[in-house]
């Protein structure tokens, strides 16, 4: 029941993230705003997540998971209700900012599972909760198709997020015990502020680059500022007695592997969503490709099978992680992604071919998300579980932003002036991006296997060795 409650909360996160993707056109029409203004509905949510996630992860380590998770669920429920009732863009952006707190649910859920469950059941439980990140994205897209169709009110889809959030709030309040925090010390607010500023400067041009122009002063200035601020943040963390994120965690190969794999998996996930949705909705009589599907058909026929498969596979993926290890599981999942995106690049003339490709890419993401939290948990002590998974969540969020930006840029660059629609080459290129991203995950996981990443005992020993005697690591919050 606890796994169900936490899974529902994480599903709420991915539902709220994805349901606005196919609704941006309707938001633009109903609110009477430009396409660039409607794009801020996605951007505001992503920026809020970047700022809040590491703080919420650390807060859960210090104060315990229960009060922080309940606070997040209450906040996103209020924000979703605001999104339903508002008819103005500024208030909708406020609602999306409040919903951005939902990104903290995943790292805190993993922390709660690690505390509450015996080690023999932890792998499957983490797999189920983590896989809902991918499955919930499909649920959001399908819900949008069912509740709004091609001409419905975009607000209707938010009811799904509100219902899931309120049910999860009630279940967590009932089932999750109250415990003191696993860590001691305080929150590094200066570190959180500088990290948030650096991530905003990084994600802002990634999400707005197609609108601003990649060579525009705003885009280049933000990217340059991100490099400077994030470099300064690393220096600040090294000089802080109780840092928000221990610097050694960012360079330890055992955390680099899941973070890089999470980044690449995020790229593949959104590249797949956007490419499939636009491709199957393209009118074949005009473009020479596509199937002329509506929003509802595109979601139910082409995306829902992958979501159902993810729900069925998640518990088995967790058992595979427990028996064979996270890295071999990650390699197998990424291999499915290489094949799936390869099919999407070369064989997509028939609906069944696109459906099969979608099943393989969704399987790839589900299996990857099942393996990643196991790798993170193996690499860090219990009192760093929340913040370590928060860093991994940020890596995935950056990947999703990058994947959607790459897909949008490639599709926009290949628009045929005669039809106003993209050429078929655009979707081939987007699929090849997915192939490359999945292949990188395979390579990273193989390197991790060869270097011994993922062995729990070695991981904890190396962490203790790295922190022993380090002047910047407080004896109050260090490992015992």
Describe the secondary-structure layout:
Layout: H1 2-18, H2 24-31, H3 35-63, H4 65-85, H5 89-99, H6 105-116, H7 119-148, H8 158-175, H9 189-212, H10 217-238, H11 247-251, H12 253-281, H13 284-287, H14 295-324, H15 326-346, H16 351-379, H17 385-413, H18 424-450, H19 456-467
Helix pairs in contact: 1-6, 1-7, 1-8, 2-3, 3-4, 3-5, 3-9, 3-17, 4-5, 4-6, 4-8, 6-7, 6-17, 7-14, 7-16, 9-10, 9-17, 12-14, 12-16, 12-17, 12-18, 14-15, 14-16, 15-16, 15-18, 16-17, 17-18
Task: Give the low-pLDDT segments.
Answer: 456-480
- Please tell me the CATH architecture of the largest domain by its name: Up-down Bundle
Average pLDDT confidence is 84
**How does the major sheet shape up?**
none
- The proportion of residues forming helix, as a percent range, comes to over 70%
CATH 4th-level superfamily of the largest domain: MFS general substrate transporter like domains
> What structural class do you assign from the helix and strand content?
mainly alpha
Tell me what the structure shows.
The chain is an all-alpha fold and 480 residues long. Helix content is 79%, strand content 0%. It has helices at residues 2-18, 24-31, 35-63, 65-85, 89-99, 105-116, 119-148, 158-175, 189-212, 217-238, 247-251, 253-281, 284-287, 295-324, 326-346, 351-379, 385-413, 424-450, 456-467. The two termini are 32 Å apart. Mean pLDDT is 84; it is low at 456-480.
């Amino acid at each position: 029941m606890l796994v169900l409650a936490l899974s529902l909360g994480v599903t709420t996160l991915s539902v709220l993230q994805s349901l606005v993707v196919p609704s941006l056109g309707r938001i633009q029409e109903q609110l009477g705003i430009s396409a660039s203004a409607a794009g801020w509905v996605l951007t505001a949510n992503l920026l809020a997540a970047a700022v809040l996630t590491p703080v919420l992860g650390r807060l859960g380590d210090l104060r315990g998971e229960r009060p922080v998770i309940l606070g997040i669920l209450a906040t996103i429920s209020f924000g979703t209700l605001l999104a339903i009732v508002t008819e103005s863009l500024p208030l909708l952006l406020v609602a999306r900012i409040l919903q951005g707190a939902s990104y903290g649910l995943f790292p805190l859920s993993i922390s709660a599972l690690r505390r509450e469950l015996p080690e023999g059941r932890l792998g499957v439980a983490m797999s189920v909760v983590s896989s809902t990140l991918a499955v919930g994205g499909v649920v959001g897209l399908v819900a949008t198709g069912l509740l709004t169709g091609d001409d419905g009110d975009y607000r209707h889809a938010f009811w799904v997020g509100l219902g899931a959030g309120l049910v999860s709030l009630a279940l967590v309040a009932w089932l999750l015990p109250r415990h003191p925090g696993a860590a001691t010390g305080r929150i590094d607010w200066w570190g959180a502020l500088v990290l948030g500023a650096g991530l905003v400067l990084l994600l802002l041009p990634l999400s707005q680059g197609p609108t601003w122009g990649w060579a525009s002063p705003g885009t280049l200035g933000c990217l340059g500022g991100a490099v400077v601020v994030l470099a300064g943040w690393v220096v600040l963390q090294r000089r802080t007695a109780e840092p928000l994120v221990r610097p050694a965690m960012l360079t330890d190969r055992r955390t680099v592997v899941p973070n890089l794999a999470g980044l690449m998996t995020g790229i593949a996930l959104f590249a797949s969503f956007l490419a499939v949705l636009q491709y199957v909705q393209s009118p074949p009589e005009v473009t020479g490709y596509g199937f002329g599907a509506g929003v509802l058909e595109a979601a139910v026929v082409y995306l829902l099978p992958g979501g159902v498969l993810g729900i069925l596979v998640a518990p088995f993926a967790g058992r595979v992680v427990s028996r064979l290890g996270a890295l071999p599981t990650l390699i197998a999942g990424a291999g499915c992604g290489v094949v799936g995106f390869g099919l999407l690049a070369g064989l997509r003339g028939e609906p069944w071919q696109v459906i099969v490709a979608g099943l393989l890419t969704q399987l790839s993401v589900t299996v990857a998300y099942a393996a990643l939290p196991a790798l993170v948990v193996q690499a860090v002590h219990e009192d760093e579980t929340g913040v370590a998974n928060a860093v991994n969540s940020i890596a995935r969020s950056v990947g999703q932003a990058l994947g959607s930006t790459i897909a949008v840029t490639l599709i926009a660059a290949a628009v045929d002036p005669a039809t106003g629609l993209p050429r078929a080459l655009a979707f081939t290129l987007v699929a090849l991006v997915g192939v490359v991203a999945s292949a990188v995950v395979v390579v990273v996981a193989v390197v991790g296997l060869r270097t011994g990443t993922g062995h729990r005992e070695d991981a904890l020993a190396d962490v203790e060795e790295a922190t022993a005697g380090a002047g910047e690591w407080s004896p109050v919050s260090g490992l015992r």
